[in-house]
Amino acid sequence: xxxxxxxxxxxxQVVLDTPEWEFPDHGIVxxxxxxxxxxxxxxxxxxxxxxPDMKFSLLVNYRIGYMTQQPYGFLLSVKKNLLLNSDxxxxxxxxxxxxxxxxxxMGLSESSKKNAARLSGGQTQRMALARLxxxxxxxxxxxxxxxxMDPEMAKKAEDFILEYHKxxxxxxxxxxHRKEQAQRFSSLCKVLENGRFLD
Length: 199
What we know:
By secondary structure, the protein is of the alpha/beta class. The protein contains six helices and ten strands; from the N terminus they run E-E-E-E-E-H-E-H-H-H-E-H-E-H-E-E. A hairpin with a 2-residue loop joins strand 9 (189-193) and strand 10 (196-197).
């Protein structure tokens, strides 16, 4: 997939100005950079949440899943939060079973019936990741997906993301400041500084 040149300006300040680049089919790209470098802005543009200065659209009917840097939970039980993103190709029973399996993988089985508002930051992040992975996407964009998790759970979440990639062959854009996480996920790393790629 070719990602076109993108530019985003806020109040006359250019926060993103990137040239055209290629996102490998079924590949994983890591996006790194300091705070304020434009990483999240690029992710949000690709997810369709933020509009760039010019007209922009990805492939027609391209399914993109996005996990924000600040995860959230709806005022429902943890399991019902996952079921909000049920896979339309599966039955109600199959979606329920899939939600249970994801909650187990994320260490949230015992919190299944708990109101999502009562979860800790790390638990909310795990729930948000599980909710995203309820469906199959052509691309998923993960903005610091394990930043609030302890090292052990972060490793498990990384394993699950990589397993999801293996099963679905989707593209993944991983936004992270963790060098070890970046190295584990992909050899293709794009570094942003002041809204521009360093390479």
